[in-house]
Amino acid sequence: ALEFNINKIRNDFPTLKQSINDNQLVYLDSAATTQKPQSVIDVINEFYTSQNANVHRGRHTLSEHATTLYEQARDKTAKYFNVLSKEIVWTKGATEAINLVSNGLRNRLSKNDTIIISALEHHANIVPWQVLSEQTGAKLIALPVNHDGTLNIKQCCDFIKQSKPSLLTITQASNTLGNITNLEPLITAAKNVDSLVLIDGAQGAMHLKPDLRKLNCDFYVCSSHKMLGPTGLGVLYGQYEALNSLDVYQTGGEMIDKVYLTHSTYRPAPAKFETGTPNISGVMGFSAALDYLNAIQSSELHRYEQELFKYAAEQLVTIEGITIYSNLSDNIGTLSFNFKDEHPYDLATLLDGYGVAVRAGHHCTQPLMAHLGLNGTLRASFCFYNTYEDVDIFINSLKECIALLD
Ligand code: PMP
């Protein structure tokens, strides 16, 4: 792997080179979606320019070539997470991957079952379980979360032991706070009571690059667009037996074995869960995104992101009137904060005037906002393509915006 070279990296991301409102763009919204390196953009362009064909159907050269690249991308994804290729299902995002699993359990759960979620979850990892609970009668309960949004792991493990869930679903890192979940003990506690475990890796997949075989969860979901890849593509990992035992989600072409007029048989996973023409160019783009990530040593990437985050957090805490909600000691690089009682939208709008892109609001985590007693926060989320200069501009702009409000 290459050494971490921030100047080269900056140069690889064309969107970062522009001005917004006459200022150099400082992009601090990577938790919403990451920017794309030129290599990803080129691969998508190349696919439509000279390779376009449908996969898995044709016997002609273009179709076979597209199929090879498409399946190679699955292999690459499996390798990134240290799992088997047949355990990787393409979806249209983390959201669809969670819906695929929740739908796949619709005939397995009943009123005697319990599903555990947490107040830290994105709506995408809450609402599908509410629907499943309504459909099956399964009890939906939440892990105990401390007042500050952190977890007392011992208390959580005891809770799992006592509740004996059929499914535990939890995020690897909070999209709002950036807090990293200490997953291993929770998964062990769940496995000790024979529970299935789903991990929402939308925020963790790139920053934390998990070894899923070691992690020992049954399901793991993530989104290409939060890992330098294109939108409209997600990944569902399922430990093969757990995956294959899920009921079918969407049905139609490709996922079938034999179709008669009145009934059909299905192929085994992953084909069973991939119906219709897939997002082929998206898969090609994601493949290039993984190449990009694989070329950087993940320990170097992590070290740089952590140093940058620390640099930002240390300056943010010194600004009078700022309250930070993120756990600063175990974080993927996301700062959630407010200034006094100011509405976060106002500061976000002012910051945009300085070319600084941050997010404001509830970040699709209304239960977490309720838990913290907030209506919303400002969120500055960092990625390895951000620089120390980005942090300086962010902090100085924030100070100027605050002076305008005060
Ligand atoms: N879970 C988490 C933790 C997220 O941050 C997101 C995206 N904000 C999702 C799930 C949903 O991902 P997508 O919108 O790409 O389906």
TrEMBL record:
Aminotransferase class V domain location: 26-394
GO BP: any one term: cysteine metabolic process
InterPro entries: Aminotrans_V_dom, Aminotrans_V_PyrdxlP_BS, Cys_dSase_SufS, PyrdxlP-dep_Trfase, PyrdxlP-dep_Trfase_major, PyrdxlP-dep_Trfase_small
Enzyme Commission number, as recorded: 2.8.1.7
The protein's required cofactors: pyridoxal 5'-phosphate
Catalysed reactions listed for this entry: (sulfur carrier)-H + L-cysteine = (sulfur carrier)-SH + L-alanine
Membrane-crossing residue ranges in chain numbering: none
Keywords: Lyase, Pyridoxal phosphate, Transferase
Molecular function GO labels: cysteine desulfurase activity; lyase activity; pyridoxal phosphate binding
Pfam family for this entry, one: Aminotran_5
Family, as annotated: Belongs to the class-V pyridoxal-phosphate-dependent aminotransferase family. Csd subfamily.
Biological role: Catalyzes the removal of elemental sulfur and selenium atoms from L-cysteine, L-cystine, L-selenocysteine, and L-selenocystine to produce L-alanine.
Full protein name: Cysteine desulfurase
Organism: Pseudoalteromonas carrageenovora IAM 12662
Gene responsible for this protein: sufS
